[in-house]
Fold this sequence. Notes:
The chain is α+β, with helices and mostly antiparallel strands. The protein is built from two helices and six strands; from the N terminus they run E-H-H-E-E-E-E-E.
Amino acid sequence: MSDLLPGQDSIDLQDFLKLRGVVETGGEAKFRVQGGEVRVNGGVETRRRKKLRRGDVVEYAGQRLTVEG
Length: 69
């Protein structure tokens, strides 16, 4: 499964969470990210439009997901 579209080198954190099905809506993604519940590459990330690239690791609700290209 590829998280990035052809020719795309990044995806917004909120879009990644929705794409992977760990949140149901953009509003939920915004709430979870801005609430400090999401970690990217080991650090808490509160920017919902944080650009993720291939190989970045996202942790949320006990899940550990790697951005795949």
